[in-house]
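Researcher: I'd like a candidate sequence for this fold, 139 residues long. If you have to choose between options at a position, lean toward the conservative one.
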């Protein structure tokens, strides 16, 4: 994603259901790689959040409510995104609170295109068989 006043933000990862996975994913902001981390062994949504460090900022990207709601949070700012449907959304809406800027919005928008079911324990269990079979293609 990029545009006037917005940084260039891209995400690359292993493909699954026409979306890149969080696994082995790469988020770049203005061609610089961001640091990504998450703990897939923990149980709560906040503990399983995707942690992002870029441009001297730290973010947490979590699933909120159902699988169509996500939130990107940093100190003093939050972007809440909602898809009209999980598979092929007709619309994606966002609500900003705090001191949000173009970098926050760009990262939140790009992450809406990433397969994020495994940000919750239930989503990880539901998608495990398909993701496991998908990995055989990489061998």
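Model: Candidate sequence:
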């Amino acid at each position: 994603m990029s545009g006037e006043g917005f940084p260039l933000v891209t995400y690359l990862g292993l493909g699954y259901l026409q979306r890149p996975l969080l696994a082995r994913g790469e988020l770049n902001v203005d061609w610089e790689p961001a640091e990504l981390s998450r703990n897939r062994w923990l149980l709560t949504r906040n503990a399983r959040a995707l942690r992002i460090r870029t441009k001297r900022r730290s973010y947490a990207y979590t699933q909120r409510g159902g699988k169509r709601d996500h939130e990107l949070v940093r100190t003093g700012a939050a972007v809440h995104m909602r898809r009209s449907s999980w598979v092929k959304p007709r619309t994606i809406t966002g609500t900003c609170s705090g001191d949000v800027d173009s970098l926050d919005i760009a990262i939140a928008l790009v992450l809406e295109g990433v397969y994020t079911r495994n940000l919750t324990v239930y989503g990880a269990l539901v998608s495990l068989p398909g993701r496991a079979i998908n990995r055989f293609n990489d061998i």
